[in-house]
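Model it.
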Amino acid sequence: MLIKPKPADLFFTTSQSLFSAGVKFFTHSKWSHVQAVVGMEGEEIVVVSADAEGVFCRAAREGELKRYAILTYPGITKEQREKVCKFLFSKIGSGYDYIGILDFLIDSDIQAEERFFCSELVFLAYQSAGIHLQERMDHAFVSPEILYISPILKVIEVKV
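Modeled.
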């Protein structure tokens, strides 16, 4: 890793798992997961992530560091970074939104309240700080790819 991401930067990853392949296929993406950076512990990236186990804070996994992209919003203020992180920390312990993933298959909003999938969590965290990563987009239908192509984000590092 050449750079040290800042809190609220987006950390996109993918893997060779069947679930990852399914996410990439149904969302037309090269990324299957997105999480938000909340800090650094030495050389380790610390993220808040919505994974199958739910929403929690953890260090980036070794496998995630093999293929990733880090994006930032250049116009973000210190206060907005803090709001993004505050939102993320407030959702720790929430469940994973398995039902919400079906939105991509049936094109209908059937979200589970206070449960999140990865891109939904990041999208809502930014919204809580007054930043709209995509205009006219409902959180129920935002995928890692939709966030990755946001016109307001800038790629700061990619490893493929």
